[in-house]
Amino acid sequence: MADMRIGGLASGMDTDQMIKDLMKAERIPLDKLQQKKQYLEWQRDDYRDMNKMMFDFSNLIFDGVMKKSTYIQKSVTISDPNEVSVKNINATGDFSGTIKVESLATAATMYSSAAITQSDGGAFDPKKKLSESFGLTGEQTIRVKAIQKDGTMAADFTEIKFDPAEESMDSLVTKINNQTGVTMFYDSQTKQMSVMSKNTGSNGAGAEIELQGSLFSTHLKLDADNDTAEAAGRGSAGENAVFAYNGMKTERASNTFTINGFELTLKNASNTNVSFSSQPDTDKILEKIVKFVDEYNKLIEKVNGELNEKNYRDFKPLTAEQKEAMEEKEIELWEEKARSGTLRNDSVLSSAMNKMRMNIYTPVSGGTSGTDQLSQIGIKTSSNYLERGKLIIDEAKLREVISKDPNAIYEIFAKDGATTGEQGIARRLRETLKDTIDSVEKKAGKASSTNNTFALGRLLNNTDNQIDRFEDRMIQVEDRYWRQFTAMEKAIQRANQQSMYLMQQFGGGM
User: Fold this and answer.
1) In what residue span(s) does the Flagellar hook-associated protein 2 C-terminal domain sit (predicted)?
2) Are β-strands 248-252 and 241-245 bridged in parallel, bridged antiparallel, or unpaired?
3) Distance (Å, rounded) from C-alpha 296 to C-alpha 390?
4) Distance between CA 24 and CA 290 in Å, rounded?
């Protein structure tokens, strides 16, 4: 049973307020612990913000200035885009020439010799089960072989097994179209089945479509191959595209093909010369490099700002009681100063800035282009020391280098090598960023980390334990104060009772 608390009944004192005031003084160390916890949490979150920014920048490097594809982007000029289209796939050099299209590649075709009917002579419905349409029973098998993209015939037939009691013509056609090298189509007007090879071109040594199975021959009235169908006037052979490239006549199985890393698509067989040429797509390449420089500048500005941010020692994190006595704007302004300087002079981030500057300034050795420094491609460091290594682009010079030799820029950023000096700037930066991120994670962890796996987390756990112990002690201290004041009140009450008794005794004897 808890001790009964007597608050000022005998003494007339405001015992409750007095104990609250005494507890305020007792709680000062606890408030400091809670302020310490808040500061550690701010520091942890600020470290994680730095890590996210570095991680995002590392990814931007990888997807931008480090990729070969960034530097092989080409703009292509064509005298007649309605005849031919040209786009770069993986060419590093420029590309020009003429092309004259004599004929386009076509796909092999074939179709039923007559209208398809049900086995009982009734009208064929492609939605009905094949067992009902054609009287088929038991597992059935059909096989299809067709020409491939490279113009050669597939080595083997594609086999499809089906249950006619479960399969309709519509559902089977869907399987054939999905699984084989042909496209089938049932025409409800003519009641015939059409078959076309998915790939264009001539086999050169036979048919481009071959069909096996009684469903094809007996019920769909299709020939065994498109050559047979063509001879009977119900099909056509596949044809290669025929064209002259820089005056040399040649063929391709498809209207779309690759020469020297460029993809050409033939659109029209007009038999007229179409000229084309390529050059580096300066704008697109420049865009990637400008993005890299902008994000690099943002990163070093942010990190340097954190390293040099002032620490206001007189502004401690606010306690809950202090917040209650302040306006929202006052809290915001106070905490802005209280949170300032959490990463001031941090050794890990300071080291990262020094390494990144070295990554940028150190020449890239062993390249083939003779270009080994950013200044040679129009990127230099700001002369304003207050900007702490900010990069500035001379756009005219950078455009000139892109137009002349984009591969030189690729080597400066992305060249691989056994030593740091031989590696491109982007590779060095990513390695520095990775090491820094790992070091920061040891201090501040990441969102998925548990506190005992990183330094600040362990400090937070220790602070939480101290807070818990101190709060238990506060309960004991408050109970002690109440016991003392209650004992005092009881003593005063007894003294008052004795005084009253004596007064009554003396008064009664007079």
Assistant:
1) 238-497
2) antiparallel
3) 8
4) 58
Q: Which residues of 465-480 are buried (b: 16+ CB within 10 A; e: fewer)?
A: ebeeebeeeeeebeee
Nearest Cα residue to 275 out of 101, 103, 96, 93: 96
User: pLDDT tens for residues 2-22?
Assistant: 454 555 554 556 666 776 766
d(C-alpha 198, C-alpha 355), whole Å: 56
Of 373, 434, 361, 416, nearest to 66 by C-alpha is: 416
Identify the bridge partners of residue 88 per DSSP, sorted by sequence position. Answer: 262
CA angle, corner 504, sides to 501 and 506, nearest 5? 110
Phi, psi of 295 (to 5 degrees): -70, -35
Cα separation, 484 vs 177, in Å, equals 93
Domain ranges for the chain, please list them. 15-68+284-458, 75-103+243-280, 109-236
Name the token pair of 165: 């009691």
Q: State the pLDDT at residue 444.
A: 96
The pLDDT of residue 306: 95
Q: Could you report the per-residue pLDDT of 125-160, keeping only the tens digit for each? A: 999 999 999 999 999 999 999 999 999 999 999 999
pLDDT tens, 157-184? 999 999 999 999 999 999 999 999 999 9
For residue 228, give the amino acid letter: T
CA 490 to CA 219: how far, in whole Å?
112
Beta strands in 82-127 (DSSP E): 84-88, 96-103, 109-111
Count of beta carbons in the 10 Å neighbourhood of residue 159: 13
pTM for the whole structure: 0.68
Dist. CA 114–CA 221, nearest whole Å: 7
Q: What's the half-sphere exposure (Cβ side, CA atoms, 13 Å) at 361?
A: 10
| Sequence-distant (≥ 6) Cβ neighbours of residue 74 within 8 angstroms | 87, 88, 91, 94, 95, 262, 278, 279, 280, 281
HSE (CB half, 13 Å, CA atoms) of 29?
10
Q: Which of 352, 426, 452 is nearest to 47 (CA)?
A: 352
- Cα–Cα distance for residue pair 36/46, rounded to 1 Å: 15
Query: What pLDDT does 275 receive?
Result: 96
Q: At what angle do helices 395-404 and 406-414 cross, to 10 degrees?
A: 110
